[in-house]
Amino acid sequence: xxxxxxxxxxxxxxxxxxxxxxxxxxxxxxxxxxxxxxxxxxxxxxxxxxxxxxxxxxxxxxxxxxxxxxxxxxxxxxxxxxxxxxxxxxxxxxxxxxxxxxxxxxxxxxxxxxxxxxxxxxxxxxxxxxxxxxxxxxxxxxxxxxxxxxxxxxxxxxxxxxxxxxxxxxxxxxxxxxxxxxxxxxxxxxxxxxxxxxxxxxxxxxxxxxxxxxxxxxxxxxxxxxxxxxxxxxxxxxxxxxxxxxxxxxxxxxxxxxxxxxxxxxxxxxxxxxxx
Length: 276
Hints:
The protein is mainly β. It has two domains: 41-158, CalX-beta domain (Immunoglobulin-like); 165-275. It is 10% helix and 43% strand. The chain contains one helix and 20 strands. The longest helix is centred in the N-terminal third of the chain and has 28 residues, at 2-29.
């Protein structure tokens, strides 16, 4: 009899242990809920961006209101520091030091423009933005979690080569002039000597241009050399190309004369690329 009672006690203890273990495992699998503890605040959307000085489009530095959309303008004041030089490396449109997040919206922007003073010295400069003040005062600056998140933002401006940047080109005069220009053609380099052109085919080989890369060399005297190379989109029997070119130093226009070596009956064709 005692043996039966003792066995029942053991069974109950085992059941209790299993139940406790199940509760512990269940609780450990639950995700901890994170609740917003406030206050509502404004902050930089990003913390770090790197851009090349040859970028011609405005750099929009975003500041946003983390909270309900207000029916009044939000005025955010900021400071700027760093090694980049105003009016040499960059300039800021509008009221420098102030950004408005308009009533009914969540974002405002610092409109930064880069100045391409390329000199073939590949260095970089830095701009550091810091939020200083916000109106209405019911909003805070950044979010505090072991420090202030979103109060600061850094922009790295990378120097670029003289010929690097974005260009456009037009069809040759012999082609119907109702063809549109081709925009956003890029020229890039890692050493400021050898450059890669993203597309030389300005309706040369058809009505629907396909991007065709080209390598050329800056000779340092406003002349260019197109070394012999293969066009990957052509049949290998007539893919060899070479040529020359020149730079207009006053306008930075680049003119290339391209020769299809394997097709001597086709004369070299000339294309001019205009900085955008």
